[in-house]
Write a structure and sequence with these properties.
single chain; 344 residues; TIM Barrel; 12-stranded mixed sheet; 12 strands; 16% strand
Length: 344
C-alpha cells in the first residue's frame, strides 16, 4: 500500500499501530485431504460434523463483506478453506470479488488437485495467482502426510494447469514437521529451483488444538536454511512489502528464490496486517485466536453497510494480538480455532 494512502486517518489501525491490508476468507470447512497438521483423520473422520450449507457465508454475504473491508484499506484478498476448490461455483465468487474497487490482488490457496479442471475458469473470472500446498516430492512421504492417497503427480498436474492458465508465478507451500518430512527439504529445493516456482518452507504451527502440536516437532528456519545451504548458497532478500510473512532468500547462482515462514522461531506479529473470516462468518484478528466476532449474524439480522463498517472499525481498533511473540506452554493449550475453519 502506498505510504500516503496508508496514513489517511479514515483507515483503522489497531492498538499497536498496524493497518488493515490483507483479508483471508475461508469459503468452506471441507477438504479432500486429511493432512496430519491440519485435519487429522482421527478427528475429522467419517463422523465429523461439517458445517451445513446454510452455515456457510453465501456469495452475496462474502461480496458484501469484501466491499466494506476494501473501503477500510484491504487490497489483498485470499480465498482459503478447508480446500476452497470444493466450494461449488467458486469462479462465480471470484468474478464478483475481482470487480470490487480497491481489490488489487485476488489469490487462492489450494492443494491443487482440482486445478486441472478449474484453473482456466478461475483465471477468466479474475483470479490473479494461486499458492499450492506440497509437503514432499516423493509419494511415500506426501501420501503419508495428506492421508488421502493422493500422489505427487496429481499436485504437479495442478501446478502445470495453473501455469498454463496464467495464474503465476506459482508459490508452493511446504509445511515441515519433524519426523515426517524434514528429509524432503533438500529434494524439494532441488526440484523447484530454476523453475520460476517459489518454494516456501513453513514452520509447523500450533493452529487449532487437534493436531497434537509440540515444539519438538518444529523444524526451525535456521535448520531449514542450513539444510539447503549444504548444497546451494543462498542470501537474504529485501521484503517486497511491509507485513510480508515470508522471509525471502535468493540462490546466489541466480536459480530463483525460496521463502521461510517462521511464525514459531522468528515471530512477525509486529507487522501483521491480516484479518481472517472463517467459513461460518466469524472474524478473527489472529491465526491463533481463541474466539472471533460473529459477522454472519450481523449480516443476517439486517445490519446496514454503515453498521458493518463501524463494527469492523471497532474490532480492528481494539486488536492487540501478538500470539507468536507470547507463545508459551499455557497459550499452546488454549482451544484455538481450527485451521480448516480459518484457513492459513
Amino acid at each position: 500500500m502506498p505510504a500516503a494512502f496508508d496514513s489517511l486517518p479514515m483507515l483503522p489501525r489497531d492498538t499497536l499501530g498496524r493497518s488493515l491490508h490483507d483479508l483471508r476468507i475461508s469459503v468452506t470447512d471441507r477438504c479432500n485431504f486429511r493432512c496430519v497438521y491440519c485435519m487429522p483423520r482421527a478427528v475429522f473422520g467419517p463422523d465429523h460434523a461439517f458445517l451445513p450449507r446454510d452455515g456457510l457465508l453465501s456469495f452475496d454475504e462474502i461480496e458484501r463483506l469484501v466491499r466494506i473491508f476494501a473501503q477500510l484499506g484491504v487490497e489483498k484478498v485470499r480465498l482459503t478453506g478447508g480446500e476452497p476448490l470444493v466450494r461449488r461455483d467458486l469462479a462465480l465468487l471470484v468474478a464478483r470479488l475481482a470487480a470490487i474497487p480497491g481489490v488489487r490482488d485476488l489469490t487462492l490457496t489450494t492443494n491443487g488437485v482440482l486445478l486441472p479442471s478449474l484453473a482456466a475458469r478461475l483465471k477468466a473470472a479474475g483470479l490473479h495467482r494461486v499458492t499450492i500446498s506440497l509437503d514432499a516430492d516423493d509419494d511415500e512421504t506426501f501420501m503419508r502426510l495428506n492421508d488421502a492417497g493422493v500422489p505427487v503427480a496429481r499436485v504437479m498436474a495442478g501446478i502445470e494447469a495453473a501455469e498454463a492458465a496464467g495464474l503465476g508465478p506459482i508459490k508452493l507451500n511446504m509445511v515441515v514437521k519433524r519426523g515426517w518430512n524434514e528429509h524432503a527439504i533438500l529434494p524439494m529445493a532441488r526440484r523447484f529451483r530454476g523453475t520460476g516456482r517459489i518454494l516456501r518452507f513453513i514452520e509447523y504451527m500450533d493452529v487449532g488444538h487437534s493436531n497434537g502440536w509440540r515444539l519438538d516437532d518444529v523444524v526451525s528456519a535456521d535448520e531449514i536454511i542450513r539444510t539447503i545451504s549444504a548444497d546451494f548458497a543462498v542470501e537474504p532478500m529485501e521484503p517486497t512489502a511491509r507485513g510480508e510473512v515470508a522471509e525471502r532468500y535468493r540462490y546466489t547462482d541466480g536459480a530463483g528464490e525460496i521463502g521461510i515462514i517462521a511464525s514459531v522461531s522468528r515471530p512477525f506479529c509486529g507487522d501483521c496486517n491480516r484479518a481472517r473470516v472463517s467459513a461460518d462468518g466469524q472474524l478473527y484478528t489472529c491465526l491463533f485466536a481463541t474466539s472471533g466476532s460473529d459477522l454472519r449474524s450481523l449480516l443476517r439480522e439486517g445490519a446496514s453497510d454503515a453498521d458493518l463498517e463501524a463494527e469492523l472499525r471497532r474490532i480492528w481498533s481494539i486488536r492487540d494480538d501478538r500470539y507468536s511473540e507470547l507463545r508459551s506452554a499455557e497459550t499452546v493449550d488454549l482451544p484455538k480455532v481450527e485451521m480448516s475453519y480459518i484457513g492459513g
